Amino acid sequence: MTPIDFVVPFIGILVFIFWRRIQRRRAERIASNIENQTETLENESIVPIYETNWCDMPAEIKLECIGRMEIRERLSLRCAAKSERSLVDSQKVQISRGTFYRVKLKQGMYSSSTVVSLHFNKQDTFTKHFVSDYEAFELMKHILKIGIFEDLEISFSNSFTNYKESINDVGEISATNIEISGCNKETVFAILRKLKNGVESIMMTFGAYFYEDSLDEILAIPHVQNARYWHLKNLKHSWIPGFEACEVAQVAQMWIDKNSKIGSTFQASLIDVLCQTYRLFNEFVKYFDDRIVFASEKRIRIRTNNPDRHILLERGLDDVMEIYDDLQFYRMMVISAEMKESEYDDDCKTWILKMEPQYYNDDSENSFEQYDYNSSDGSSDFADDWL
């Protein structure tokens, strides 16, 4: 036998041994991987697996689900189980515009209906008509409690005032812009005091439920003092001599006392039934006699305690708004003391339309965008017994 005859079998034996070692190590790695995966699965099995039943979910999971629900689903859940009501009430919802108002019915046994209308950024709309004031107010309280409003409008007649005490149950009302009309004095004050910090504009209508002392109480509310824009429609009529002028002067005095920021704006409209067109300006000049910088039939400018700031009172006059018209519009602003007369804005139409969009027979939008309150998806028929 040659040496090669001995070498070949020996090499074959070495290859076989090496192959067996490779196989053994591969088996060990597979076994190790299986053991690790088994341990992982055992650890994962500690995490509870919930059934689809809502009752089996913990509160934090329910809150996450509620946060993703639309308003109709939230109201349905709120009706379905009393135990979930507190969870639903604790979750806030962004609302681009919320409107609560009354409309007169042309037919049927009921003379009026209360409407709750909500608009969301996703073009989603919820509208509900109520014949019962109680049901309408209960829904309104819930929406005011959970809503974060860009625009909020509340307009009710005197028949709604029986529930004004319940406004105190709402908590803070979060709104960037708010408009209030048709409410009695107590309800207006309750709403204003419930507003959360951050209100930028307040629009109000001075109705039959307000008296001479109402403005003092309104001006004492911090949200009114800090609002960048505020307007009052339908100030007291001219049979209360000097009262309108006192109101405008009171706002100016409040700005002086609070050192209000440049850009703060107050607008007012009044019906001058006696056509005493110069009386408001004359009374304003008398009130601030020692602060007058400039006075004309259209503008009055006064100094404040801050040398950097003046207050400018303007009257809306143009080709449509004439000096002897019964309806008069006024705008007052905190301006820079450096502002020149050439910088005054003579376009009163723009700011008058902010208060009275139809006055010029114009199609301009109101301070809040005009919406179609009839929901296209049938939501106005939603959940008659939602309470």
From TrEMBL:
Which segments constitute the F-box domain? Answer: 54-92
Q: Which Pfam families match?
A: F-box
Q: Write down what this protein is called.
A: F-box domain-containing protein
Record the organism.
Caenorhabditis nigoni
Name of the gene encoding the protein in the UniProt record? Cnig_chr_IV.g12793
